[in-house]
Amino acid sequence: MRRRGGRHARGRVLGIPGALAVLVALALVASGCVAQAGPVQATPEATEEPVFRPVLPTAPTATPPPPLTENEVDDALRDLVCWYDNPTLAQTCLPPGEEFLGTLERVALSDEELFVAPLIDMMWLDVGWARWVREALERITGERFPSAAEWYAWMATDPPPLPEDYAEWKGRLLSIIDTKFRPLLPEAATGDGPGPEQLVWSLVGPQGVPPLDAPATVHRVEERFMGNGDVVFGVVVGGQARAYPERIIGWHGSVADEVGGTEVLVWHCAVCGGAAVFNRYASDGVAYTFSASGLVWESRRLYTDAETGSLWDAVSGRAVAGPLAEAGVRLTPRVSVRTTWGEWAARYPATRVLSLDTGHVRDYSEGASLRIDADPEGPAFPVSEVDARLAPKDRVLGVTVNGARKAYPLAVLEQRQFVLDTIGGVGVAIISSGAGRGATVYETAGTEFEGWSGPPDDRIMTDSEDLRWFVDDERLLNTRNSRVRNALPAQVAYWFAWAGAFPDAALW
Length: 508
Known about the structure:
alpha+beta, 3 domains, about 25% strand, eight-stranded antiparallel sheet
């Protein structure tokens, strides 16, 4: 049995529960003091006395209880999640009762660090047991943190040993919310993907964020619900323009659509700070059917495909767990821009926009779908590390060229409106119409561009030879000889999300 004496040497915070403490705890449960499922984010109030009290020895020569055997560890873990052949019965074991508290007492007494990761998972999935679980954690580890998110962050920096069949156990725990979680959890990390201990419940179940497939759209002149300042993600394919309002896609996450005869996939991640547009067909030539998995990794939404049950990262567009991760399957990004509806509609008068008729009842008012991302400074879910070169929630424009990646602070691009740079040996020109209107990246292919002029709906680029180029979100078109400079895929995300998905990315 593995033990980690280094942590214990720092001192224990609390002791072990006695019979009186158990009776008090049961009285609390019986009185209805059971929280709804969800993570504990607020700093807990201190109790006058610890729930877990030291058990006084009957004689000075008394010895501590013997270490638990592997079977005893397994039995204790099963008792904690009320393990049944039918996982749906786990919900019948709430609220936690006397048997649960007795098991938790044995766990706290064991000093066994195989319980650390499971107990932290239970802290996040608080169904009325947070107080007792927290004190068991403090007793085993000698550490104290005010929230489950901070326990997760601590575990990432000093990973404890994991019990055998931990992924199956965590699936049983999440079955209290939805049994569909069980097959999604990987047994172990694939490459640089997440292990089961790194996956966190996102407060909704699998498919709790219903995807949109071939959603209804309306012409610009027909819509009556958009405000000029509403955020949209715009796409132009084959001369056809389509706007995806954040107020709609924020409730659905994944949108499978066809624009200009091309199948595209739009993934929105509220807790990542933006959306990405991909080719519908993955690198293996298959058009997968996606939905939000209900899990996050490093505060980035994970999607799952109905065909294989693999998990996919919302920012990088690659499979990170499951069969497709082992095969290295990924999605190819497409050109898109984060801007306002007023600016987009002025540039593309013939654009179509998603209709409010989605087939689902949701609050589609501006900002309603983003309430989960309420903290203005920090990630909504646990992250193990944040690159300190920018504030975590500074939005960046992330660009990938020839395998090289670079992030640009979006606010700076919108202020400067014109930037020349090189990424992966390729010259690029980045232009923006101003604050809140995003930016688009174009290859220069040796042309020395000097800037742009005109209103946002009729922009003209000029080069060092005083030639003029028409600007749209697919390309730059030379007005004299019809030469073209193509737009390059880019996406907007929070800095912590982009840097987490691409730790090797440069920062402009």
